[in-house]
Amino acid sequence: MSYLNFIDGTWREGVTMAPNISPSDLSDVIGEFARADAAQAEEAIGAAAAAQPGWASLPPGERFAVLDRAGDELQARADELGELLAREEGKTRTEGTAEVKRASQILKFQAGETLRNPGEVLPSVRPGVEVLVSREPVGVVSIITPWNFPIAIPAWKIAPALAYGNCVVFKPAELVPASAWHLVDILHRAGLPAGVLNLVMGRGRDIGDILVGDPRVDAVSFTGSVDTGHRVLATAQAHGARVQLEMGGKNPLVICDDADLDAAVAGAREGAFGSTGQRCTASSRLIVTAGVHDAFVDRLSKAVDQITVGHALDAETTMGPVVDESQLAQDLRYIELATQQGATLVGGDLVEGRTKGHYLSPALALDTRNTDTINREEVFGPVASVIRVDDLDEAIEVANDTEFGLTSGVYTSSLSTSTRFRQQSTAGMVMVNLPTAGVDFHVPFGGRRGSSYGPREQGRGARDFYTTTKTTYVAS
């Protein structure tokens, strides 16, 4: 089946078509998806610019109704779309269904934000003058999303953009167009006017510069690699667009001597290897104090060995394949480099599945130093490392010694230890006795340093990016 781009309220053929192939079964072609060119990207931006004043002027209740209806359909189709998501991205069916449900929650929460967009009325320092402070939409927003959460991340960017009266040009990752296509189709049928949401699928090198650099684009929200994020920032700021970037993490999970080891092992396994480790919040650096290091490593090694790697749709599978051949090669390079730098490896082997796919067993690199490459660069796969430290002081120092700063976590039974870690961690999100991965949809998401740039995503924090402040003075 062929799937087209969506521009100005109509489905449009692309300049070429590309197959969407399942990483679980390389013979499983999910569909043929259109690729846009620069001219179509420009047309989409023009459609969004033309539609924006009308969409912004609608009563907020009408924007609420569209997002709420779309959220209802996502919830009703969670099993169907979760299976589709698992086929194209490789996470398990359970994880795929949960992600669709999360997208539904995001849309319905942001629907409510259309009615919760307060301003202020303040007295002026001058007699007889009243000051009104209000929030208005930014305008045209380009949204560029990654492949690892192919429906949740688009939802948490698109929903607030639309809720606050912006119009959107959306480019999903080339590897996962199917989930994006269905999200746009659902929002369109929920009642969006023509031009309010436009879908241009294809390669970043063909249309990325247009979506970021066109002067009609008022804001860009991007999630992806650090290098690409820096290029997006430079290009967008050249014409004054506001920019929001989420670019990754090298997240520490500290295991203290007084931790509940059963809980810590379960949290480390889920944080490191859930979603095949392909998430920016993954617990990729496991920092363990000396008193429990050996016991923790022994228990975690056994727990990791119990992970069943296989086809994303098989009931017994607990970890699906790596997303594609290129990512698999990257994972293997980092595993080899870790062993060359002295790590002892548990797992990290190619796995033969019932179908031909990109299967890799979870890898645990032991006896590593924080200066090793495996602990400095984001792998973005089912690869975690263990760093032994003497005590909490060293653990906090090592945890903060990274160019990233997305999320961090600690396992401890001490209130004072958890309080100290929470206060001294330099990550944007801190977890206590929880995996570093796993966040709520109604609170801000984002990090510091090399992980994030610009206002936070999700929750009420999204308003800071998708609206601009207007101050009005009124003489009585």
From TrEMBL:
Record's keyword annotation contains Oxidoreductase: yes
InterPro entries reported in the protein's UniProt record: Ald_DH/histidinol_DH, Ald_DH_C, Ald_DH_CS_CYS, Ald_DH_CS_GLU, Ald_DH_N, Aldehyde_DH_dom
GO molecular function, one term: oxidoreductase activity, acting on the aldehyde or oxo group of donors, NAD or NADP as acceptor
Keywords linked to the UniProt accession: Oxidoreductase
Record's keyword annotation contains Membrane: no
One Pfam family per UniProt: Aldedh
SUPFAM superfamilies in alphabetical order: ALDH-like
Domain Aldehyde dehydrogenase: 17-471
Family: Belongs to the aldehyde dehydrogenase family.
PANTHER family, sorted: ALDEHYDE DEHYDROGENASE-RELATED (PTHR11699)
Protein name in UniProt: Aldehyde dehydrogenase family protein
Source species of the chain: Nocardioides luti
Lineage, top ranks: Bacteria, Bacillati, Actinomycetota, Actinomycetes, Propionibacteriales
